Amino acid sequence: MTDTTIFDKIINREIPADVVYEDDISLAFKDVNPQAPVHLLIIPKKRIATVNDIAEDERELVGHLFVVARKIAVQHGFAKDGYRLVMNCNEDGGQSVYHIHLHLLAGKTLGWPPYANAEPKQG
Fold it and tell me: What positions carry the motif Histidine triad motif (predicted)?
């Protein structure tokens, strides 16, 4: 895992991001291509490439991302109305940055299923 991701650069403050939350092990910032009025990315500062790469001893770290999502939802006032949390895995799952990240979407009624217009994979 030698390639630097855009998230590594954000963590290291090499490129700017609109950070809404930070602690010792995680960072949350606004998505530059929002899919809802509120679209945040919550990432661990430790790089884990995909969900498939999460080790047993990293379960608390991954669980922490969900705790951060709840904190942000309460702090920003949309916890009661609701929000969606999504984590994609690999190319077919929609992952484009290989550093796990939790998408937090809120601020409008979100439809179901979330990817109704997705085309089935051919072949």
Answer: 99-103
pTM score above 0.70: yes
Asked, for residue 118, whether it belongs to a domain, the answer is: no
Residue 69 lies in a domain: yes
Which of 48, 25, 3, 1 minimizes the C-alpha distance to 11?
25
Has 101 been annotated as catalytic?
A: yes
Q: Please give the C-alpha separations between residue 18 and each of 32, 102, 105, in angstroms, as whole numbers.
A: 9, 16, 16
pLDDT digit of tens for each residue in the chain (123 aa)? 568 999 999 999 999 999 999 999 999 999 999 999 999 999 999 999 999 999 999 999 999 999 999 999 999 999 999 999 999 999 999 999 999 999 999 999 888 765 555 555 565
| Residue range(s) defining the domain that contains residue 11 | 6-106
